[in-house]
Amino acid sequence: MRRIFLAGFATLVVSAALAALPGRAEAYPQFQFSSGTTRCSQCHFSPAGGGLITAWGRDESGDTISLGGDGAFLHGAWSPPSWLALGADLRLAATRTTDGGTESPQSAWFPMQADLYARAAFSDSVSLYLAGGARGEVRPSDPSIGGRASSIPDRFISREHYLMWRPSATGPYARVGRFYAPYGLRFVEHIFYVRRYTGYNLYDETYNVSGGYVGDDSELHVTAFTPPPSSFPDPLQSVGTRESGGAAYYEHRFAGMAALAGQVRLGFNKETTRYQGGLVGKLWIEPAKMLILGEADVARIEVTGVSVGETQFVGFIGPTFFPVRGVMAMVAFERYQDAINVKGAARNAVDLEVNFFPWAHFEVVLLGRYQMVGSGQPGATDASLIMGQLHYYL
Amino acid sequence: MHNPRLMTHVRARFWAQRSAMGCALLALASGFGGVGCGDTTDDRPAQWSFISATIIEPNCATVSCHSAVAQRSGVDLHTRDIGYHNLVDRHFVFPGDSNSSSVMFLMHAQGSIRMPPDVPLPESDIALIGRWIDSGATNQ
Question: B54-73 burial, b for 16+ CB within 10 Å, e for fewer?
Answer without folding.
Answer: bbbbbbbbbbbbbbbbbbbb
